Amino acid sequence: MGPAVDNPIMIHASPVSLRHYGVGHASHTHEFVQIVVPVQGALCLEVAGRQACLTESQAAYVGAGAAHAQEARGGNCSLVLELDSAEISPALAENLAGQRFFSLPPGASAFVSYMALSLRHRQPSALMLAQWKSLLLAELAPGDSLPGGRLATLLARIDANPAAHWTIAAMARTLGVSASRVHVLFQHELGTTPRAWLVQRRCAWARTWLETTTLPLADIACRAGYADQAGMTRAIRHETGLPPGAYRRLWRELETKPQDPPTRRSSPFVS
């Protein structure tokens, strides 16, 4: 691949981001691990001397220190996951490094689509990004021992059925551990409490449905697991400064301006 003539544009400055690549990005290395997944168009990569052109549901693993270059022509977008070497288990790292290019399992492919959709609308919280990383790694290596992997099954089940009555006791039964152990796992792996995580996730679900559907507010509150619409209203107002109806209207008004949605916390930048 030729010399760089166009740098990748990152939509979000975070460990999980969407990037558009240009023609002939020069070969380079970095000290962290990357997993690169095209979500629109095709992306050609060279990693440690091996080349492949990837499309949706295919991925590349770029190990720490591995020389790599990428090139894309026309409209394209890729989801890029950046990890410290300690965040990925040795067994999974060895497996992916041996393949370098691989097809995503169905669960991982669906989760990548969800992440890409979310990133196009707003900057997720640091807590959500950490959860995304753990969940995607768990999908790539079911049964492997991953940082955050002990909670991955629980978090996925809650995301699949947020309206359920997710008490600490219910979480403990799902994990097969004691209630006190649930608190320990959340603190150790996510740096928060089960209740704080659930509050944040319910608000995130509600905001996503407000942004992307025409569901009545009461239905959204029920789907997100709130006891009533008033509970959702308090949460959305606390998070955004607006009640749900006003938040939805503002989002609709600014929907045609993706560079400046109502919850954007940083401007696009070039790296």
From TrEMBL:
It comes from the Bacteria. It holds the Pfam family HTH_18. Coiled coil: none annotated. Residues 152-250 form the HTH araC/xylS-type domain. GO terms for molecular function: DNA-binding transcription factor activity; sequence-specific DNA binding. The keyword DNA-binding applies. Keywords: DNA-binding, Transcription, Transcription regulation. Signal peptide: none annotated. PANTHER family: HTH-TYPE TRANSCRIPTIONAL ACTIVATOR RHAS-RELATED. This is Helix-turn-helix domain-containing protein. It comes from Acetobacter garciniae.
